[in-house]
Amino acid sequence: MPTLTHNLDPSSAKTEDDYHRLLIRWFQFGVFTPIFRVHGAGTHTEIWNFGNQTSSVINRSAITLRYRLLPYVYSGFWRVEMTGYTMQRALAFDHSADAGVRDVADAYMFGPSLLVTPIVSAGDTGTATTREVNFPQGAWVDFHTGQDRLRVRRNGRWEY
């Protein structure tokens, strides 16, 4: 299966605050999936209907990034069509020699170059903003800063 997708649907939230936090996380995760769409049958799913604060966070952290990645995503889909490539893969597919990533279930490669590690747990207070990442061995570039001298040791920690 070369692609998967999901509905951006925070309907499982128990409170209004949880709804907005979950909606933001769904959008942030959706950026790194081949098909990025909001679920809604008979509901208003336009971004401006989510409230000013939530809409602002979604615009800054997800939609702007998705537009920045469109050439990358389109190139990936071209590769899927032409070669049977898979846009999303478990880390072990690309890093089979690294035993440290074989059992990582909540991170994946998106296209040939992006390691995606979404925050999938709300944390104790429901507001998790960080997580631990087990990077495969090799050289990695920080997408946001462009710093290209990062190396990863066997235990997955950044080494400068």
TrEMBL record:
KW Hydrolase (keyword) present: yes
Alphabetized SUPFAM superfamilies for the sequence: (Trans)glycosidases, Glycosyl hydrolase domain
Gene3D superfamilies: Glycosidases, Golgi alpha-mannosidase II
Keywords carried by this UniProt record: Glycosidase, Hydrolase
GO biological process: carbohydrate metabolic process
InterPro entries xref list: GH, Glyco_hydro_31_C, Glyco_hydro_31_TIM, Glyco_hydro_b, Glycosyl_Hydrolase_31
GO molecular function: hydrolase activity, hydrolyzing O-glycosyl compounds
Superkingdom to which the source organism belongs: Eukaryota
Pfam families: Glyco_hydro_31_2nd, Glyco_hydro_31_3rd
Segments forming domain Glycosyl hydrolase family 31 C-terminal: 84-148
Span of domain Glycoside hydrolase family 31 TIM barrel: 18-75
Family: Belongs to the glycosyl hydrolase 31 family.
Protein known as: Uncharacterized protein
Native organism: Symbiodinium pilosum (Dinoflagellate)
